[in-house]
Amino acid sequence: MITSYDIIKTIMRTEKGTSMEADRKYLFQVATKANKTEIKKAIEEIYKVKVQDVNVVNVRGKIKRVRMAAGITATWKKAVVTLQEGQKIEGI
Hints:
24% of the residues lie in helices and 38% in strands. The protein has helices at residues 4-7, 15-20, 36-47, and strands at residues 8-11, 25-30, 51-59, 63-66, 69-72, 76-83. The chain is globular and about 55 Å long.
């Protein structure tokens, strides 16, 4: 059975993500098979907050080269989670 900790991989601490916290929005890297409903339940269970909205972006891998060898970085899924008024994720 998949748990909440399998769905939410990590919270993304980037410059853009930090500036979005003033609007009660947080960035997470999530499992590629997870949908919005599963992400919402996982955030509410892990962080004990009420989620208002979840937006999801599939980030495609980029082609990279190292000398003669070409490769591609991993494809992953990003979730932008908006919390309800007065809610905040503590300890990050």
